[in-house]
């Protein structure tokens, strides 16, 4: 029984270090994890540059193994220290954690370099872990709330933009035709979205006067319409900020019930009742 | 008389299925219609890709006939079940519904492929039907209201942008001239709008130092001016949201039923009834 | 004395037609003027297209003479009917009106086609007259007020953007150098503004990894910073709209002095005093 | 003692002229400084244009020496007239002021033209001095406050955009590959940011249908997401403006002097003093 308890304590300590953020050890773990993730991302990036890969291939390979082993140890510790390992395994972060360790071990079995690159890139999904660590920065919650509140509206808007793009893309396909680069309706829709979102690569551009006139209309539509999601987020965010402020400051007078609008009020503005006891 | 009544019932049932959205049959009809429209749009798109059309021409042709016949049946049912068929025929959706069936039948008479593509694309107009189905999503109404409220303002703004574009386009035509790609004033205006809306294809770009200086001014104007429609929509949307919230949270007078808009109201603003008991 | 009075009446009538907008004749004059201006603008535009000019040169020449003579008559009538002709001559619109008639008469003396095009384009300045006619659309006043209120702020902002562009442009010139298209510091600043305002022609683009990294930073700065003028206009416009609404609805109770927030209020919400006499 | 006092007076006068802005001499000094800085910036710019440099090399060299000597005198005067010279030397503007004089003197020792251009450009840092002079325009303070308030939120947002760019860039690298211009993951991330911020150079653009589809998604994300920083700044700015207006219009308590923030307050919120006589 004593060993069992000891075992539990040992697990609890690991749990506190890995999942906790308030103890010094927990904070240190988070910072080390952040550095290892960033390091692994930089390695994946640099490896993709041919000149770097040729020169430092050995170093990259060793780095990858070190990172993979560190991630594997972390994954095992997470599994051991948690009460319901199954829940973790099938959670969003559980799958990402697994996917960021498995690919390197697969290099023993698969030798085609094409597949390896794709698998290696899976480790990049770990950037979401960083986001999770950043979550503790209060501001991001506020941002997330504002985005969540305007989610459906932005979805409706994007859907509308897509329908307009399908129509305008088809018209441009009929006007310009395959000889001017508008080779098919999907390709033409691609061009319409490139124009409507004001990206404007210039790989395809209208050649006929009529096509250029329609393009001008599309741009002006895009110009006027970009205002819509901005207006939505802006209004939602303002409303959210105001609500929070109101609920922070909202006290009411115990004598007459009038709202107290200023946090530094000492007397009720309605009945003159003393709010703060001395 | 009995058959006449039966006939009426039969029509009423169809009407409920096609126009209604609250019965299970009505919902099912809407979902099936949505799928058929999306399917027909995808077919039109894929057909326009030469490599796809060569390989699956037969399949596309059959698909088109199936979709056309389904749309024809729907059109006839709509005509039968409605009380004033003439009103439907000349309504916006009536014309679209007709235009999305007719083209395929015309292939018997017209054999020029150029015309066929254009006609076939008419079926894409049916995407508006999807919009009509989406209408029931509450958020889109809110969006539509905000847009409607800022419509005239955005129109005035777009008109102003056009006048500025005409002036700046002419100046650029005089500065750069046909040798640097600014072949005519309309073409130069096209370039100005491409720049002002920050699309920037790069198919034409100023070559002279003076032209580049003016282009820089145009960009900064565009940068500062894009704020205007955004600001309008943002303010209108915020005002609209606030009004709705106010009326949601409102109390109503127990005497005359008028909404009470101010939380600190003590008397009804409509009948003078005392709202707060002392 | 009778002839003098008659003369005055005759002038007053012309004045009413030209400057007035409330009489049917005044409205008709404005509409005709609008059409003639638009027609003259379209002629200037089409003339600049070589293929059109070759074919319809004679027609364009006659059209120009007709428009010029109409504008000259209008100019003389304005001079006659106004009390202080000197004030009109040196006013903004007076100069534009003169500049839109003079160029065509100059074709008798100057025969170089290069100069002619530039002079002819002066007639485009008349589009401002259209703006003046549109002024009566109430919305544009509201827009103009919002823009005027945020003028200084946007100026400060644009000034800051320019300074940042000078610095970043110089850095890019040092990093990329003339071999990659950044031929001089002014040209490099031009590129920076093209990037910062998200126009992105692509006529010059960074080639070195360091240059691309700095370009990425510039883009993200531009992305975050475009928010500033939008935010300003949005807030100013909202404040302006609100103020107007407040002043429209702002009545106060003659009994207790409480503000009346609803235009349809019949009783004071504070003391129950009857606001509207029957 | 008398000379010491005289010396002090002499220093105080210089201090007033250089650091002060309210005396005519102080204003004149600021304006002269502004002109010299702008002149030196224009010289650095024009010098970088090869054709200008060849023709006016001698003039540019003399101009640079004049500006450098003027800046050196200013630097020495600032050192003499201030009480704590060490504090000034190591301040932000102290370092910039030094860096804008040193490079020209270094031309005696270093003769490589490559280094000279880079050093010469250091003088451009003096544009910040202009900003400091502009500081007195009240509006820029308001802007700066709005930006400072939304700083952390925009940082969180930019951080999120970067993570999304890393993921999407990697996906595009895997989809398009080096054959279509996506030569490495960092290069692919560069492309993603170019697209997401709607800059769209077009130096690299997706060639495969799948790549174009993903590009379309990135653009629409960028389109919807650009709303976020705008919304934040807009809301913050509006809140800031409102707070300022409220405090501007506020009454103050005749008893304790505290501001009265609510127009319908009857008692002071600080001392309970009755504000409204009955």
Oligomer: homotetramer
Q: Report the β-strand fraction of chain A as a percent range.
A: under 5%
Largest sheet of chain A: 2 strands, antiparallel
Order of helices and strands of chain A: HHHHHHHHHHHHHEE
What's the structural blueprint in terms of helices and strands?
The structure is a homotetramer of 278-residue chains.
Chain A: H1 2-19, H2 24-47, H3 50-81, H4 85-89, H5 92-99, H6 102-106, H7 113-121, H8 127-134, H9 138-149, H10 151-176, H11 185-196, H12 209-225, H13 227-249, E1 251-252, E2 259-260
Helix pairs in contact in A: 1-2, 1-3, 2-3, 2-8, 9-13, 10-11, 10-12
Description:
Four copies of one chain form a homotetramer. By secondary structure, chain A is mainly α. The first copy, chain A, folds into two domains: 136 residues, Up-down Bundle (Four Helix Bundle (Hemerythrin (Met), subunit A)), CATH 1.20.120; 104 residues, Helix Hairpins. Chain A is 72% helix and 1% strand. A two-stranded antiparallel ribbon of chain A has the order 1-2. The longest helix of chain A has 32 residues. Chain A is flat, with a radius of gyration of 28 Å. The mean pLDDT of chain A is 76. Chains in contact: A-B, A-C, A-D, B-C, B-D, C-D. At the B-C interface, α10, α11, α12 and α13 of B face α2, α7, α8, α9 and α10 of C.
